[in-house]
Design goal:
Elements: H1 3-12, H2 26-41, H3 55-58, E1 74-83, E2 88-96, H4 102-115, E3 119-130, E4 133-135, H5 139-151, H6 153-164, E5 169-178, E6 181-189, H7 196-213, E7 218-221, H8 234-239, E8 242-251, H9 253-259, H10 264-282, E9 286-287, H11 291-302, H12 309-312, E10 315-321, E11 327-336, H13 348-356, H14 368-393, H15 397-404
Parallel strand pairs: 1-3, 9-10
Antiparallel strand pairs: 1-2, 3-6, 3-8, 4-6, 4-7, 5-6, 8-11, 10-11
Helix pairs in contact: 1-2, 4-14, 6-7, 10-14, 11-14
Bound molecules: 3-hydroxy-3-methylglutaryl-coenzyme A and NADPH dihydro-nicotinamide-adenine-dinucleotide phosphate.
């Protein structure tokens, strides 16, 4: 069918938006849908239609009903010196945002931290979780099933998980029982992948094994909401999900005063009264100033699942004056769900952004690239916290956004 004829049929509703690929290739289908939408709605979608990435590689893997792209400006902050276990050296951090002053702020934090000798990062835990829901005859049966699963992790790995993934490894389970409901919060290692597809597909296989073993127990939902994916929650805050990582640094007083225009005492006091007391009063899971800003901008730049910015924004910022009069500052991030393979990381622009940090693709050995990436993200988040806290302490926040944000 000719291009114009296809557009007409889509406008008239004779061909549905998702059926265009039946008549043409994926790149043309993308153009047809956009033109049809322009005609039907009387709008011009010129910029949405300008792109270099190839719909052939994306439709069916990353997107449906594709009509083009959205362009978000990308800036870079750095260099940031990181003294991590996986990330060692100086890094530039790509940030996709439209919030003026954000990149400048992270850049200032990077500059202060690097001059101070760098950020020390420590990975505390690394797991992806899925918690299917099983309906049991009663709580006692639920407990029996939970005990059996806990005692048979290796068997389940062999019988279910290793059938569907090479990098996914079941390392344990945390069961929760509510009445006759059993939630099995499975914990997996997922190599360099963020892992949600991997653990979801694996969990479905596990359900087959459990139903075979316990015919009176009914698997009801692959996600029972104790995973917890893409929602603010205490579970991930306490138990972690994805990478649990801490970044910390000591900034000499002289650098705080010269580069950040304030003092260690004021930063520590603002942090205590704002990030700790203020957040407690608000019932927030973010005992921090703006993890979400940095996590969000890195997620968008590097093809992470943007809905998981929710849990990435959880965490605690601490600031103290050391006995020497310098500033100790740290960020604790319990739930940073990120990967360097799979999902949006394979889209060429996002992959290029990962390559800026030297973390595109799988690591050698597998898992090390994603861990390195987690350390870099935590370092960048520390830079953002440091700069914003300093700006608030110095009463520069409104001024900065007047100058750079409007
Ligand atoms: C804007 C600054 C950095 C000025 O800060 P300054 O100290 O006046 O700037 P400066 O000209 O003296 O330069 C100091 C350093 O800042 C960097 N810098 C300075 N300007 C630029 C620029 N144009 N582009 C790139 N980098 C820049 C640069 O690193 C430079 O050092 P150098 O590397 O040259 O040695 C500062 O006032 C600041 O960080 N303000 C805070 C802004 C911020 O963090 N905004 C985040 C968004 S706020 C929000 O969304 C969350 C919120 C606030 O609602 C959450 C809450 O409730 O707390
Ligand atoms: N299904 C769901 O419920 C949900 C899905 N998502 C989406 O899931 C996607 C991410 O899922 P995810 O499982 O991370 O990605 P993928 O589904 O892309 O799985 C990763 C793939 O990469 C392979 N692989 C190659 N090298 C490595 C390596 N070094 N480390 C790990 N895996 C490697 C894996 O092979 P192998 O498996 O054989 O090891 C697997 O095929 C995102 O698009 C996200 O938006 C998000 C939330 C929920």
């Amino acid at each position: 069918m000719e291009f114009e004829e296809l557009v007409e049929k889509v406008v008239k509703g004779e061909i549905k938006l998702h059926q265009v690929e039946k008549y043409t290739d994926k790149r043309t289908a993308t153009e047809v849908r956009r033109k049809a939408l322009e005609k039907k709605l009387g709008v011009k979608l010129e910029h949405i239609g300008h792109y270099s990435i190839d719909p052939e590689q994306l439709i069916g893997r990353n997107i449906e009903n594709m009509i083009g792209v959205v362009q978000i400006p990308m800036g870079v902050a750095g260099p940031l010196k990181i003294n991590g276990e996986y990330a060692k050296g100086e890094f530039y951090i790509p940030l996709a945002t439209t919030e003026g002053a954000l990149v400048a702020s992270v850049n200032r934090g990077c500059s202060a931290l690097t001059e101070a000798g760098g950020v020390k990062t420590t990975l505390i835990d690394d797991k992806m979780t899925r918690a299917p829901l099983l309906k049991c005859p009663d709580a006692r049966r639920a407990r029996e099933v939970a005990e059996w699963v806990k005692a048979n992790i290796d068997y389940i790995q062999e019988k279910a998980v290793s059938k569907v993934t090479r990098h996914g490894k079941l390392r344990g389970v945390k069961p929760f029982i509510v009445g006759n409901n059993l939630y099995l919060r499975f914990e997996f290692e997922t190599g360099d992948a963020m892992g949600m597809n991997m653990v979801t597909i694996s969990s479905e296989e596990i359900m087959k094994v459990i139903e075979e073993e316990f015919p009176d127990v009914k698997y009801l939902a692959l996600s029972g909401n104790l995973c917890v994916d893409k929602k603010p929650n205490a579970m991930n805050f306490i138990n972690g999900r994805g990478k649990t990582v801490i970044a910390e640094a000591i900034i000499p007083r002289e650098i705080v005063e010269r580069k950040l225009k304030t003092t260690p005492e004021l930063i520590a006091e603002v942090n205590y009264r704002k990030n700790l007391v203020g957040s407690a009063q608000a019932g927030s899971y973010g005992f921090n100033a703006h993890f979400g800003n940095i996590v969000g901008a890195i997620f968008l730049a590097t093809g992470q699942d943007e809905a998981q910015i929710t849990e990435g924004s959880h965490g605690i910022t601490l600031a103290e004056v050391t006995p020497e009069g310098d500033l100790y500052i740290s960020v604790t991030m319990p739930s940073l769900e990120i990967g360097t393979v799979g999902g949006g990381t394979r889209v060429p622009t996002q992959r290029e952004a990962l390559s800026i940090m030297g973390v595109a693709g799988g690591g050698d050995p597998p898992g090390t690239n994603a861990k390195k990436f987690a350390e870099i993200v935590a370092g960048a988040v520390l830079a953002g916290e440091l700069s914003l806290l300093a700006a608030i302490a110095a009463k520069h926040l409104a001024k900065a956004h007047k100058e750079l944000g409007r």
